[in-house]
Amino acid sequence: MIIDSIENISKYNTIISENVINFIKTLSPSTPCGRYEIDEKSYANVDEYEPKPYENCKFEAHKKFIDIQMVLSGCEDLEYTLVKGLDISEKYDENCDVMFFENSESDCVHLTPYKFAYINTYEAHKPQIKTSSSNVKKVVIKIKV
Predict the structure, then answer these.
(1) What is the pTM of this model?
(2) Strands (E), the chain
(3) Cα separation of 77 and 136, whole Å?
(4) CATH of the domain at 42
(5) What average pLDDT score do residues 8-21 get?
(6) 117 forms bridges with which residues in the sheet?
(7) pLDDT(133) > 70
(8) Residue with more model confidence, 134 or 1
């Protein structure tokens, strides 16, 4: 897991493509919600939602895509841990590229505007945890591995 600020996004050009970096730099709270095709290996979803109570959030992981999650407005918590050793609660769905896990000991990051989390395929994450914000606008960038 990499946690950093958008000001430093260009420093990750060895693991994040220039197309993705340039796209991230164009985002703002006024970016319309929707799906954005970035290039043949990556796309982004911009959504606005109300974060969920902790007990309604689940650990998830992906096999085909790395996530970059960045809040554009509002704030939320995101917990993370390694997939290895976790108990699966919902088997891998190849069509949706997601599997879910039972709760586990984890670390937590408080995502505020323009702070991003780079989440690899060997890391489970529990996003959308409600803090003080009533609404969050966030981009999730999917990068094919």
Answers:
(1) 0.95
(2) 2-5, 34-39, 42-49, 59-61, 65-73, 76-82, 88-93, 98-101, 107-111, 115-119, 123-129, 136-144
(3) 11
(4) 2.60.120.370
(5) 97
(6) 3, 69
(7) no
(8) 1
- For residues 66-87, b (16+ Cβ closer than 10 Å) or e, as one string? bbbbbbbbbbbbbbbbebeebe
The secondary structure of residue 52, as a DSSP letter, is B
Question: Which range of residues forms the domain containing residue 138?
Answer: 2-144
| 30 neighbors 76 (Cβ within 8 angstroms) | no
Phi/psi region, residue 97 (left: phi>0; alpha: psi -120 to 50; beta: rest), is left
- H or E segment at 25? helix 18-26
Query: pLDDT digits over 42-73, tens only?
Result: 999 999 999 999 999 999 999 999 999 999 99
Total domains in the chain come to 1
> Is the confidence at residue 132, as pLDDT, over 90?
no
Phi and psi dihedrals of 84, rounded to 5? -55, 125
Identify the CA nearest to 98 among candidates 58, 61, 143. 61
Mean pLDDT to the nearest integer, 108-114: 97
